[in-house]
## 1
Amino acid sequence: MKTIDQWFAEYQRDHQDPTNQILHKICVPAIVFSTLGLLFCIPFPLVSAPGLDRVYMNWAAVSSFFLMIFYLLLVPRFAFPLLVLVLCMLGTFASWDIASPNSILPVCVGIFVLAWIGQGVGHHMEGRRPSFLKDLHFLLIGPVWVLAFLLDLS
């Protein structure tokens, strides 16, 4: 498996244009947020044990758990900041669901579509195809690349 530095080097080669970089630093977090929101909208009922109350979970929490394991194994120095961000997003969806349960889905669909359009514009300006078309792992590297820039952790 590649190291995070190897992933970053390859990702950086596909993102040289300053405008494309700015669009990615806006759109990648928006895509992560909206994807978790869309997953949050899919209920995942789980019966814990006979006689106990039913525990309500969702696909956003379940997928986040496995993603955190992936990130912890790939790049431990990013695991805690990523965990904090993901927990904040999940908490946002939980409180949003209580306040206005039917608004998460349409808002997240809108954010998702607009963010991918922004990504497409950035890659058109760059003149390069998105990295994830070469390797789907780049869909998981993009968020860490943005976080490394924002927190200066690279």
## 2
Amino acid sequence: MAESYSYTIQLQSGTKSLNAFLARPLAEGSYPAIVVGHEWAGLVDHPKTVAIRLAREGYVTLVIDLFGGERGRTMDECKALSESLSDSEAIAGYRSGLESLKTMDAAPQKRLGALGFCMSGRHMYLLASQATELSAVAVFYGRPQNARISEKQPVHPIDVLPQIRCPFLGIYGEADVSIPTEQVAAVREVLRKHGKTFEIYTYPGAQHAFGNDTNPERYHPQASADAWSKAIAFFNKYLKG
């Protein structure tokens, strides 16, 4: 596994200035790149660790801070932060991240991926339907159906799946009460019906956020390790192959 280094950068999303955490391989060279989304707590340690792990696998990785430096410390705070963010704002942030990655010498323009968890996993359905520059997108337990349609969340993610433009990886927990297995089956069926390239895995006994090792109540070491290996194989196939 390669060594890496990381630092914070700023980028523009429309009129907004966003902070982002960048991790990249230490060795000079040309590397594929991945934009990463954080969970509803914000840009805390877990997404930074994900970025560093990806950098050590040979990817330039950028995590966009969609909450402007705010962090959720309780369930209520996290809920309030996530509900304050519109889909359009989130997608604009990820698009700014992709544009920034394109300008980096170590990130070839045509080898770009996206990875999201929980809240940002939901966003990645939407991003994959819009961003033609993406070569692969991976979703860890992102909800395919909204709790409700609203001004900030005007469409169900599953409804845009026919428009995705790249291979899709979906990772879900069978014990995730927020994403029933019927919804996962529906995602699989839509992707199959529309001839998309995809892989979907559901882990028995795994709850929502089972890959987050900072949440001991939900962390599932075996499922997390297997899901991570599948994600790396997926990105290696479509971004390095």
